[in-house]
Amino acid sequence: MASPDDLKFQEFEEATDLLLADPGASTLSMSGSSSMALAGATGDIKLDMSDDEGQEESSELLRGEKQTSGFWTFEYYQSFFNVDTMQVLDRVKGSVMHLPGRNFIKHTLQSSPDLYGPFWICVTLVFSLAISGNLSTFLNSLGSPHYHYRPQFHRVTIAAVVIFLYAWLVPLGVWGFLTWRQREERQQSGYSFLETVCVYGYSLFIYIPTSVLWILPFEWLRWLLILVAMVISGSVLVLTFWPVVRDDTKVTAFATVATIVVLHALLSIGCKMYFFQTATHTPVPTLAPNHTAAVLTNKTH
Amino acid sequence: MPILHRNRYLTTIFAGLSDVSISGDIPVEGEINVPVGTPSHDDEYSTLDEPVKDTILRDLKAVGKKFVHVMYPKKSSTLLRDWDLWGPLLLCVTLALMLQGGSVDSKEDGGPQFAEVFVIIWFGSVIITLNSKLLGGTISFFQSLCVLGYCIMPLTVAMVVCRLVLLGGSGMVSFIVRLIVVTASFSWSTFASTAFLADSQPSNRKALVVYPVFLFYFVIGWMILTFSPSA
């Protein structure tokens, strides 16, 4: 378990006060916080994961509210956008600069996923990939006299398809697989679909500054940036999903985590290869999945 | 003759005549009063009678007034109250047409097609409006579309300027001039639309609503800046 450092200890005192004031307060059904509730009641404190008991309460109330409207009403979708500016910024920061051992969903999201972050991060990533790719092609061919600048607008369409498919279909697959395993093995609760989408969406944030930095035409720098970005965002994903699969058989656990990491790697390498080329020819635009594009450009290099 | 008696009198006559075939007219006494609408004071109710020129001019004046509001954005509710989508449509079509005729070496590597510009502008406005409403904004759907559409006007002006500058050559100087013009008009658009839209949001979410607007006009600005004429 995480050991409390000075800062957390101060915050936690507030939380215990809240708990002691209302010992009957309902907490979330996750094993971590329920142990904290018991500990708080007896006065013996062991900090587990969440800092703010008060926020957890309100997020549970929120979750209760969410279920009351049907999915055809506007209010249902409004409940997924119930975030403030500071919350979004905190979540983005949490996806980039997180400490090892912290589960993104439990700690940063505090189990109230939103759709604002994932959606707008994907849109920004689409445009930053297309624009930066265009700029890098332009800078590459600056020397040659026959080059006529072309906006290459079709790249926006391709980037949009790839990024949105990744950010929505892969979480669907991961969630489906985890829910199926959890039902088979009768394990503790997994994550809801929205939380999975949220994790994937926020983990893509690191690629936005990476794609801008990819404009610099140094090959070693681009590979270094890929490595750094993959380590950061991959670790967010791994740390989130590891606690859920670790109770499964060893093979399944490792296979799941490995698949997540490999897909993530394919996305970043595929984007880098397709949008930022050092070869002089322009590729045949194709809507095939990432690895095919990577293989094609590899063959023609 | 009082009305009640008259009606009964008439009914009796007709009842009695129901089984009699009539060949001629039967003279009926009485008065018939049909309420005739007095010419109403508001013009909107009797716009069918006015000449077409008046109708068109009135709509054009409304559109023109909104253009002026965008040029000098101040917090007035006229733009919001009387929304219309003519202005945005006009601007969108003008912008999309002017973005055509770019470099024609290959269809794929060129600039945005007409349909792509249209889709980006309208679909983008709808998404931003939905985003603003989902975050709890109090502005209505069409009002927001109207504001976003009208605030494209500085960018359309920038497009015209860019095309004129490109007539004079496409070297470094023209690029810098175009960059300055597009940056200035994109900031103007964002500022103008934020002046209208940000008020309808609670203060802790203003940035969440302004950012998509910024992204929207940034993308349009990039499309304008990267327009390169056929060689």
Structure, explained:
Chain A: Residues 100-267 form the Yip1 domain. Chain A: One of its GO terms (cellular component) is Golgi membrane. Chain A: InterPro entries: Yip1_dom (IPR006977), Yip5/YIPF1/YIPF2 (IPR039765). The complex is a heterodimer of chains A (301) and B (231). With 301 residues, chain A is mainly α. Chain A has a domain at 116-140 and 147-276. Chain A has 13 helices and no strands. Chain A has helices at 6-21, 31-42, 53-66, 74-78, 85-96, 104-109, 116-140, 154-185, 193-203, 207-213, 219-245, 250-275, 290-300. Chain A is globular. Chain A starts with 5 loop residues before the first helix and ends with a helix. Residues 1-6, 24-66 and 279-289 of chain A have low confidence and may be disordered. With 231 residues, chain B is mainly alpha-helical. The A-B interface holds A 74, 77-78, 80-81, 83-86, 88, 116, 120, 123-124, 127, 131, 134, 148-154, 157, 282, 285 and B 102-103, 105-106, 108-113, 116, 131, 133-136, 204-208, 211-212, 215, 218-219, 222-223, 226-228, 231.
The proportion of residues forming helix of chain A, as a percent range, comes to 55-70%
What is the ordering of alpha helices and beta strands of chain A? HHHHHHHHHHHHH
Number of helices of chain A: 13
Number of helices of chain B: 9
Class from helix and strand fractions of chain A: mainly alpha
Model regions low in confidence, pLDDT < 50 over at least 5 residues of chain B:
none
Q: What is the arithmetic mean of pLDDT of chain B?
A: 79
Instruction: Choose one word for the global shape of chain A.
Output: globular
What is this structure's SSE topology?
The complex is a heterodimer of chains A (301) and B (231).
Chain A: H1 6-21, H2 31-42, H3 53-66, H4 74-78, H5 85-96, H6 104-109, H7 116-140, H8 154-185, H9 193-203, H10 207-213, H11 219-245, H12 250-275, H13 290-300
Helix pairs in contact in A: 7-8, 7-9, 7-10, 8-9, 8-12, 11-12, 12-13
Chain B: H1 3-17, H2 52-71, H3 78-81, H4 86-98, H5 114-134, H6 141-150, H7 153-167, H8 172-197, H9 206-225
